[in-house]
Design goal:
Layout lengths: L1 H10 L2 H15 L3 H23 L16 H8 L1 H17 L9 H5 L7 H9 L13 H17 L1
Helix pairs in contact: 2-3, 3-7, 3-8
């Protein structure tokens, strides 16, 4: 699925990407603990990255413009700390009506359209991430479980 995953991330819908990952999970016969966690995580992160991709506003965790959604960019954002930062960046951008915390040019940032944070918020909340105060840390057990999810996805792609 390696080369296929680049085209998948570059062009496909959230549902198609998640479906392909789910199919790959089935063929690999992964443990049920991962199969029940991977789809919600993948859907949650893509609920942010795909709208950014479609608006040509993708950026990496350092705030630099990225021209394509790739498995590598997905993995950069899948880090729990980066994912939390992404949620707060989008939340602040939704309030401001423009994309914040990036080095994208001003005219691009001003074209920003609000992105629904419900799925990502639900995922982070279910993993004990405080969604009110960005400076509060999350439990190490949540981080470790999330890292397991990320590692399984990385092996699939």
């Amino acid at each position: 699925m390696k080369q296929e995953s680049y085209e998948l991330f570059k062009n496909s819908s959230i549902e198609n990407i998640v479906k392909k990952i789910d199919e790959e999970l089935i063929t690999r016969n992964e443990s049920p603990i991962w199969t029940t966690r991977i789809s919600p995580f993948t859907h949650a992160i893509l609920s942010i990255l795909v709208p950014l991709r479609d608006a040509n506003m993708l950026f990496n965790p350092e705030g630099k413009f990225v021209d394509e959604l790739t498995p590598e960019l997905f993995f950069l954002w899948s880090d729990f700390v980066s994912l939390k930062t992404l949620a707060f960046t989008i939340q602040k951008s939704n309030v401001a009506g423009e994309l914040l915390r990036t080095s994208l040019d001003v005219s691009t940032c001003q074209r920003y359209k609000e992105i629904d944070l419900k799925e990502l918020g639900d995922y982070l909340g279910a993993n004990n991430v405080n969604l009110e105060n960005e400076s509060l840390d999350f439990p190490i057990a949540s981080y470790n479980l999330h890292q397991g999810v990320s590692n399984v996805i990385k092996s699939l792609l």
